[in-house]
Specification:
Blueprint: E1 7-10, H1 16-27, E2 31-36, H2 39-49, E3 56-60, H3 66-80, E4 85-88, H4 103-131, E5 134-139, H5 143-146, H6 155-175, E6 180-187, H7 200-204, H8 215-227, E7 235-238
Parallel strand pairs: 1-2, 1-4, 2-3, 4-5, 5-6, 6-7
Helix pairs in contact: 1-8, 3-4, 4-6
């Protein structure tokens, strides 16, 4: 599948799933606008994705800041004239008992996972409505959001990523007649820099298939949804069977 001329905005793209999605998008001929709060890491990622700079726009900053979200969209439009796809990948995870969550932790997670999603989506939708076409993919979560486990205390993931699952369906219905599709990928625990290698064996046990997810599993899911023109409002679980039931 070629993405020749297609423009994607990818948040949280300095590493992990966002970086991998952006790399694959450009490999297939597309252009990307990448965002992340770690400026140096984002710059290094940009060079890896496209050393020429012709197919990439870099916007560093906290996506939870409305001004950053606006810049991400405006700079993409200024460079390429349109936005075809938004991948809301930026997110942070803070676990622990609910009574131990601090105010700072709560506000940090809500800012990135919820405010960041809302502001950039709002600006992208405005641009997509003018063209009458577009696709939004939200990276949510499986276990913490939909299949709670005693071993993984994750109230903030349930609040934010579960909320994104609901928002995915709401937006899909709101904009179905405007030519805009909205879907989600709900990963299981995936091998990214978020998880230290020494935890991998333990984390693999959360999945009936007996392994952690690979970043490539998530990339393939995003690519499928991008090509699936008759799919909207879908929450695609890429979680090794985690969502199917208690393991």
């Amino acid at each position: 599948m070629s993405f020749q001329g297609k423009v994607a905005v990818v948040t949280g793209a300095s590493s992990g799933m966002g970086k991998a999605i952006a790399i694959e998008w450009v490999k297939r001929g597309g252009n990307v606008v990448i965002n992340g709060r770690r400026e140096q890491a984002l710059a290094e990622t940009a060079k890896e994705i496209d050393p020429t700079g012709a197919h990439i726009v870099v916007v560093a900053g906290d996506i939870g800041d409305p001004k950053t979200a606006e810049r991400v969209v405006n700079e993409g439009l200024a460079r390429y004239g349109h936005i075809d796809t938004l991948v809301n990948n930026a997110g942070i995870f803070i676990g622990g008992a609910t009574t131990d969550i601090t105010q700072d932790q709560f506000e940090s997670v809500m800012s990135t996972n919820m405010a960041g999603f809302f502001y950039v989506t709002q600006h992208v939708l405005t641009a997509m409505l003018k063209r009458g076409a577009g696709h939004i993919v939200n990276i949510t979560a499986s276990g913490g959001a939909e299949q709670p486990m005693k071993e993984m205390q994750a109230i903030l993931a349930a609040l934010t990523k579960g909320g994104l699952n609901a928002a995915t369906k709401s937006l899909a219905i709101e904009y179905a007649d405007k030519g805009i599709r909205v879907n989600a990928v709900a990963p299981g625990v995936t091998k990214t820099p978020m998880h230290a290698p020494e935890t991998h064996d333990f984390l693999a046990n959360f999945h009936p298939l007996g392994r952690m997810g690979e970043v490539s599993d998530i990339v393939e899911a995003v690519l499928y949804l991008e090509s699936a023109s008759f799919v909207t409002g879908e929450i695609l679980h890429v979680d090794g069977g985690q969502n199917a039931g208690k393991w």
